[in-house]
């Protein structure tokens, strides 16, 4: 699973008065792709982990390059960029017909639900992500 992607159609609710996708919706699209990436690994509710742990967005660095418009068919990618003990970074893209519209690095942190302080990713999840990360970096 080197590069994961999902298809997505732009609906009227995604656009502003000018018919272009409102900037915050790109972040929503990226969230959906990351969620489906983790769902494909077997996590039914990817943001809520066993043992009182949550996965939360820590930071987002996003570049808006070209606008998406009503009815566009997009592909939203999610690829592991960096993996640490308490977080994972995804490199993500929004693509239309091979054209890069938006890209970003999104850091997802694992936190304790009660304290909201960083904590280690669950061992099984970390092992899965490590395997994917190393298999994708060794082929590049």
From TrEMBL:
UniProt GO molecular function: fatty acyl-CoA hydrolase activity
Keyword Hydrolase in annotation: yes
Keywords per UniProt: Hydrolase
Family statement: Belongs to the 4-hydroxybenzoyl-CoA thioesterase family.
Protein name per Swiss-Prot or TrEMBL: Tol-pal system-associated acyl-CoA thioesterase
The organism of origin for this protein: Cellvibrio mixtus
